[in-house]
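Page header: ASSEMBLY MODEL / three components / 866 residues total.
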Amino acid sequence: MNKSAILSLVDVGKSFDAVAAVSNVCFDLFDGRIYALIGPNGAGKTTLLNIISGYVGSDSGSIRLRGETIGGWTASRRVRQGMARTFQITQLFGHMTALENVMCGFHTHIAQSLASVLLGLPSFWTEERALRVRAQHLLETVGISDYANEPAGLLPFGLQRRLEVARALATQPSLLLLDEPCAGLSRAEAADLGRLLQHLSRQGMCVLVVEHNMPFILGIAEEIVVLDAGEVIAKGRSEEVRNDPRVIEAYLGEVEHGAA
Amino acid sequence: MTARFSYPIMTLFVALAALPLATASPYHLTVAGLALIFAILAQGTNLIMGTAGQASFAHAAFFGLGAYTTAVLSTKFDFPVWLTLPIALCFSFVVGSLLAYPALRVRGFYLALVTFAFSEIFTSVVGEMPGVLGGTEGISGIPPFTLGGWSADDRMSKYYVVWVGAVLAYLSLARLNGSHFGRVARSLRDSETGATAVGINLITAKVRVFAVSAVYMGFAGFLYAHFMQYISPTSFGLNVTILVVSMVVVGGLGDTAGVLVGALVLSLLPQWTRDYVGLEPVIYGGLLVVIILLLPEGVVPALRNTLRQVQRRAAVS
Amino acid sequence: MFLQILVTGTSLGLVYSIVAFGFQIVARGSNIFNFAHGEFVALATLIYFSLSATFELPPVTAVVLTILAVVLVSVAVERLMLAPVRVRDPLIVAILTVGIGTLMRGVMILMWGHDVLFAPPLLSGPPLSLANASISRSGAVLIVTCLAVVVALYLVFSRTLWGKKILAAAINPEAARLVGVEEGTTRFSVFLLAGLLAGIAGALVAPVTFASSGSGFNFVLKAFAAALLGGLDNFAGPLVGGLVLGLLEAFTAGYVSSAFREPIVLIFVILTLMVRPSGLLSGPTERIT
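Prediction written out in full:
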């Protein structure tokens, strides 16, 4: 375990009934880099993401965020400590507008007290205005500012996914976990997302992307972790990993059995 | 949804303020006053049930809590009315928090049970304690609203006090809905996972919304006690629970202005069913069923949408 | 006195269990919190009263006809009021069942009034005694029948294909659909079964206690409490929850206070659920957030 890592997993394991979803997972993530987590279907990628973000508890091993053990932390606490994520099935606030969704993202940084709200104090109006401006800016960053006042539930699938990224960014994370962010995006939109992630990593954010879209991954990921049947079978720089025979076999096996 | 207030609603309030000038009938003022009180209760219920999407059925009990707190303090202990108000509100807030905390640890079904049970506990405890709480006889001789030397003795003053309360309730709720508090409440309904993903602690958020909604319900109870000057357990039973739920559904779950309008309209129902006692459950129940099957988004929102479509067509042609 | 309370509590508890099973089956099979379930039981008590007291039918006939009638009503409610629902929101569906229950209560009041009505016993003859506890013959029939129903339910859910399909649909609706289990068919089946159970409970309870149009709310509250107390995810949950509830109510009425037995029992349920949110039969759940 490297002490300067932002996220450190040591021997993380989780079983559901008798089936081991993940076992002996070890890796470190550092600031300012983009990582990819790949593997055949059912390899345990989303489970691992759920464990890291706190939606599922691990049975064994340790998870450390900037050196602090976070195994017992609730998911919302991890968000407050700078870990944000998106989901395979978007979890947007469907009745709220896109802008309001992003404004919710600022939750951990909002100071509004009930008193200032009810009395209509200037601090309330100032903060509301500031939230709107910053949320609008984030919508522009992901390219959906035209839809700011549309109800999120009515947006097309691809826009919803980008909205979820904007909302995650609103929490001002230092570690961003994305679960298949390219699903539903066109080539151009995926490329835009890639550029955004690279921009964020240059500013110091650590990004972990779970993805099937190999061109996207190879384009932006500096390091790749490969999961198969819940275990890490390879990790390292993109070139090493894509030529690793075990990785090829894991994916070939998937192709042979007609899964994809 | 911004924190600003809707002009049609403000017009409605102005019209309601002018009501005592239009009619001298004390009966009309009583009905209108009760309608405003139920509007406050319904909007408070809408906050927890509609906006935050929680299956809470305790509103009749909090209504009763506010009413009984002020009634007991002002009749048996001679507390001045301006003092019983903050006490009733604080008590509602505290009980709301206490009730919410255990109820919200796991599933939605559990909250429904606890809130129904709380309603049942409230009515049976109050009904069984004839001493301080008046038992099934209730508490009579409740003083009217007083402040300093002034006292709202006549029907018109009492009506205006209730009117002021209703305006304050609507304005504060509209403001809350347009603030971060409102967004957090709505996130609870739309996606708990999403709420967690932005760092919202679900339990803290639910307890807060619950407690705040209880304050509005208790406020309605406070007004009711001093408006009617008599309360009994039957005013806070199952029929009230169902009627208020109907108001929220008619007005549209989560729609503060819609629920206000829905409540004012449905408050007239008890006046009609009075002649056909025993028909109340059939009418309230039937109304709920029909509306949910035909217009689940609410009658008022459906009317509003139709009105907008008509306006659009008129603008085009 | 202790033995008498035990007997009373057990028979009360078994009734609650049967009612709770009906409630639980709908909750698990269709994810519907059926507030109207208690009204079906109340309806059963009233129909049994009319058939046996007003029309003077022999008890067994009256019971069978009551059960049939309630099943019909239950299925009619499902087809006419629940199947056409266009919204997915479980809160709105729950409110709908509140409306249905209220409507049913209103109709019952119109047809039978507010009075508490007493039906003739199922079996004539002196009460049975055991030590210094006694139970009416109707009460004995109640206990035996309830136990038989519980056993039958267990067999249905563990041995028959129909029962297993319903359980499967409860645990994983999407997978169930893939295997060919339709949501609408499942809902129909669970309401049929719930109506059957409500009919049995009501027809048996009426001659032992009474029939009344206002008893629905109490039944559903107890059913809900028993189901949650035992644990919604456990088959034996309603049985355990119902018995605990019935015994607690009897003991509270006997040793503490009869007037306050309702609030005391309900407070106990709330406190228990605070400590064991998933019910008495499960461990404490994993906190997610």
